Amino acid sequence: MRDIEDVTNLEAVAQRGFEELTSMGSLYLVLVYVVTLELIGEKVTGRLLATAAVLNSVVVFGIKMIASRPRPEAGEVFLTSSFPSGHAATAFMAAAVLGHRYPELRYWLLILASVVGVSRLVIGAHFFADVAVGALIGYTIGLLTTWKLEPRLESQG
After folding, report:
1. Which among 15, 26, 65, 146 has the fewest CB atoms less than 10 Å away?
2. Bond from prior residue into 70 cis (ω within 30 degrees of 0)
3. 23-64 confidence digits (pLDDT tens)
4. Cα-based angle 60, 39, 97 (whole degrees, multiple of 5)
5. Distance between CA 141 and CA 138 in Å, rounded?
6. What are the sequence ranges of the domains in the chain?
7. Cβ-contact 99, 147 below 8 angstroms
8. pLDDT by residue (tens digit) across 124-135?
C-alpha cells in the first residue's frame, strides 16, 4: 500500500514542479530580466529583449484573438485562447535573444525554454500544437528582432 501512496505523492510533487517551471515563460519574468539587464549595464541586450517581448506579445495575442481555440480540460479557468502558447513563445523568444547575445548559454537557454513548453502540456494548459507553434513564433521573433535591431543599437552605444 505504501508504494501506491509514494507514487501518488511523486505525481503531486512532479505536477507542482511543472506548475512552478511554467512561470519561467511569464512575460512578467521577462520584464524582470529587462530591468536587471539595464541595471547591470547590458543596455543593448535589455532593449533587444524588451522590443522582442513587445512584438512577441502583439503577435501571440493577435493570433489568440483570431483563433479562439478552447483549452484542454485542465480544471482551471484561463482568460485567453489556447492557441498559440504565450508562455512557450515568451520562453523561446527570450532564449533566442539571450542565446544570441550570450552564445555560451544558448543550449542551456533552449533546454530551459523546452522545459517551459513541456510544462504547459503537463499542467494541461495547452495542446502540443499550441506549444510547438508558440515556440516557433517566439524563436523567430527573437532572432529577427536581434538580427534587425542589434546593429542599430550597437552603433548608438
Report:
1. 65
2. no
3. 655 666 777 777 887 888 888 989 999 999 999 999 998 998
4. 35
5. 5
6. 2-156
7. no
8. 778 899 999 999
Q: Which three cell numbers stand for residue 6?
A: 509514494
Distance of alpha carbon 5 from alpha carbon 3, whole angstroms? 5
Q: Which three cell numbers stand for residue 25?
A: 515563460
CB 134 within 8 A of CB 88: yes
Q: What are the CA-CA distances from residue 118 to residues 47, 52, 70, 125 (Å)?
A: 28, 22, 19, 10
Identify whether the C-beta of residue 27 lies closer than 8 Å to the C-beta of residue 57: yes
Locus of grid cell 480540460 = 73
Question: What cell numbers appear for 15 in the block?
Answer: 505536477
The b-or-e profile of 87-116 (16+ CB within 10 A means b, else e) is: bbbbbbbbbbbbbbbeeeeeeebbebbbbb
Percent of the chain with pLDDT over 70: 78
- Reduced to 3 states, what is the DSSP secondary structure of residue 70? coil
